[in-house]
Sequence to fold (451 residues):
Amino acid sequence: MAATTKYIALKTTVPGPKSAAVLDRLPQATPRATSVYAPLVVDHAHGSLLTDIDGNTFIDLTGGVGVLNVGHTHDKVRKALHEQVDRFLHTDFTVVPYESYVRLAERLNAHFPGGHPATTVFFNSGAEAVENAVKIARAYTRRKGIIAFERAFHGRTLMAMTLTSKVHPYKAGMGPFAPEVYRVPFPYPYRCPNRHGDPHHVCDVSCYAAIEEALTIQVAPEDVAAVIVEPVQGEGGFIVPPKSFLPWLRAFTEKYGILLIVDEVQTGFGRTGKFFATEHAGITPDLLTMAKSIADGVPLSGVMGKPEVMNGPGDSQIGGTYVGNPLATAAGNAVLDIFEEENLLDQAVRQGEHLQARLKAMQGRHPVIGDVRGLGAMVAMELVTDPKTQEPATELTNRVLHNALKRGVIMLKAGIYGNNIRFLAPLNTPLDMLDEALDVLETALSEEEAR
Fold:
């Protein structure tokens, strides 16, 4: 462990006896598909710290898988939720509407990339948002085809799972999948494939040509309703494409009358240093999906888009009983207040710069760190067995994360081969807390590397 720990406080081994007792009950109470990652049971959490029922306090760099950009149990969110509980819990917005839904939509519309007018509809989860974005695109265009990318992740419901690229554990044995989905390459600068043996191979040029080719060998352009893309691939490995990619893709879709859906479920709400990651590219999408950090852990998601596109479906064609529920919209408005009052976008930029500087210095001492990349605070490092062959170091990654967890730092992996360590700390995490966590990470890496 790091020489001193200001934030981490471990009173027992991990898991502690109380956590172990609860974990022992899981196999009888829940199916194996709900297996848990961290062998501890939470008691309370605030900011970037999480304390289990054994009294052990951890630095949480997972942010609930990107849900807690404003931190665990932010005071403003708690206050908004308590006030809403005392007023009413449910009506179904389409039966009896409430002002917080309208106000949240208005405030989010002002953030639509490119400054184009927009409207927003709310759902419960990121997957629901993706499903409904596809429905909206098909209703507007009267076309069926959807183009998605290699290594993409868009959720686990039928259409979202079909759009998702990773087979294990998300898709194996779950077919048949939704029809009319077509897959194309996503530019991955560290591992860009040379598909045609071209000695002058350039990552972006090769991928762009393959995407164009798909409209000849996979599906006719007049049959494609939309292309769906993550501005930075999340579960795929925090892959930041070349700066030219999204502007090129916007021009490509406009050329053929195809809608562009940007999936900002993980990249949105300040994670990349802009409110939405699409802003870095200076383009306006037709539709945008959002979830995760929209409401600080209360289930809420949304689809935002150009009004003419959003009005493609007819009356009551989209919706749901719980969508945009009053607790969630109260939390969502509080989250926007926090962004406005605490300069979280600036904090995201500082956090990202700090992380990349520390990780690149670490890379100089540890050749197993093949790549350090990121945009804003959406940062990852990729572990390889050999920097020349770039063979994914999947097992090493698992051991490093387990070692760090035993020392009081909770982190997650990502990528098709599970060899990327990703950072999703709340954007307001103190930098000295990040340093303490990174010291633990390097100690864990050194120990596992020595094996």
Q: What stands out?
A: Residues 76-342 form a domain with the Aspartate Aminotransferase; domain 2 fold (CATH 3.40.640.10). The chain has two domains: 17-60+344-450, 76-342. The two ends are 17 Å apart (CA to CA).
